[in-house]
Amino acid sequence: MEKREDLRIIKTKKNLYEGLLILLKDQSFENVKVSDICKISLVNRSTFYDHFQDKYELLNSLIKDLEIEFTSKLNSEKTYSSQKEYYLNLVKILFEHLNENIDIYSKILKNNNNSIAFDIFKDSIERDVKKHINELYNGKSTVPVEIITNFYVTAVISVCSEYLKDHSKYNEKEFLTYLDKLIVNII
Q1: Distance between CA atoms of 159 and 178, rounded to whole angstroms?
Q2: Which of these, 106, 11, 120, lies nearest to 73 by C-alpha position?
Q3: What is the model's pTM?
Q4: CATH number of the domain that 67 lies in?
């Protein structure tokens, strides 16, 4: 039988996540202190340490929860009529996830110009693309699967990074239109 998480634990984690994100809006992660997170989250330090060893584990937990949410969207088993359709759908799913969580990612990226936000996606997208390519070629590709995977994963993350940095410059529909012109139907 599946063990359900206590609602108080869920609420505490949510409060700590929100507190961390509020602080990340104005400062880098390195400058955030556990005491600041607790104060803004209205959570006692001892309660914080009941759930997390430090702020790094809190951030990792937040990222893991976002990754689980994103991966579940990717894993909706669909069949695609073409490679182009697959990659456009992959980017569309990523855009939907970004739009649903735009405040979180914007805050993380604003003062933290590292790859934290995109680490969330890289592994999930990489697994999905590699699985798709293996199914497509069934081990008979003239280009190694790792090179094809890296090519498309890097492209998807790079394009989505541009969108996330300034989502007022281009909207999702424009991005997908541009990608539709760029992605060829065969690998």
Answers
A1: 10
A2: 120
A3: 0.68
A4: 1.10.357.10
